[in-house]
Amino acid sequence: NESTKCTENLTPSQTEGPYFKTGSPQRNNIAEGVSGEKLVVSGYVYDKHCKPIANAWLDFWHADANGVYDNTGYNLRGHQFTDEDGVYRLETIVPAPYETRPPHIHVKIRALSGEVLTSQMYFPNDPQNQTDSIFNQELIMNVEDVENGKVAEFNFVLNQ
Ligand code: FE
User: Fold this and answer.
1) Rounded mean pLDDT of 26-37?
2) DSSP assignment letter at 26
3) CA of 112 to the centre of ligand 1 (A)
4) Per the confidence metrics, is the pTM higher than 0.85?
5) Ligand 1 centre from 89 Cα, in Å?
6) Arithmetic mean of pLDDT, 121-142
7) Interval between CA 4 and ligand 1 midpoint (Å)
8) Could you write out the DSSP letters of every residue in 39-100?
9) What is the C-alpha separation between 13 and 26, in angstroms, rounded?
10) Which string of b and e fits 35-74 if b means at least 16 CB within 10 Å?
11) Residue 93 C-alpha to ligand 1 middle, in angstroms?
């Protein structure tokens, strides 16, 4: 599948938006106690030579199934590090759209050395993708429906 390979195209950056919070807990499952359709997102973090990066930091945050961010606590917020193979795995729920925005997952990524990449990941075939002012089709995840929710793949390529 084309979208799951490292093509040496750097992952485009996007605005962090208004709802980023520092201090998220370290965890793979950011949806403990939060209801919604299950979603597991996984993939690699690569450098620009397509070499997987171990121990890269990834911080995820997104809206809940009603399109609302938790700005008082840390529901649907969490950070993790890639394993020795450069793989991350995020367990969460499918976010709802809000205001004019299509469903999306925010992320910040940094290798041990290097700059932070701030970006967002999108779902394929969402009608609001086409009317969103910052949507970028290079940031669409590869999403599959499974028995108990959705499974998605997305690989990041950092400029280093
Ligand atoms: Fe957002």
Assistant:
1) 98
2) B
3) 26
4) yes
5) 20
6) 97
7) 24
8) EEEEEEEE-TTS-B-TT-EEEEE---TTS---SSS-TTEEEEE--TTSEEEEEEEPPPPBTT
9) 23
10) ebeebbbebbbbbeeeebbeebbbbbbbbbbeeebbeeee
11) 14
> How far does the centroid of ligand 1 lie from the alpha carbon of residue 131, in Å?
15
Cβ–Cβ < 8 Å for 76, 92? yes
Q: Tally Cβ neighbours within 10 Å of residue 19.
A: 15
Measured in angstroms, how far is the CA atom of residue 114 from the centroid of ligand 1? 24
Give residue 3's pLDDT: 46
Helix (H, G, I), strand (E, B) or coil at 4: helix
Q: How far apart are CA 92 and CA 98, in angstroms?
A: 18
Residue closest to 51 by CA, chosen among 100, 85, 11: 85
Distance 68 CA to ligand 1 centre (A): 9
**Angstrom distance (rounded) from CA 51 to CA 85:** 10
Ligand 1 mean position, distance from CA 67 (Å): 9
95: CA distance to ligand 1 center in Å? 9
Q: What share of the chain is helix, strand, coil (3-state, %, to 5)?
A: 5, 35, 60
Report yes or no: 5 and 52 within 8 Å, Cβ to Cβ.
no
Q: How many C-beta neighbours within 10 Å does residue 142 have?
A: 16
Q: How many Å is the Cα radius of gyration of the chain?
A: 15
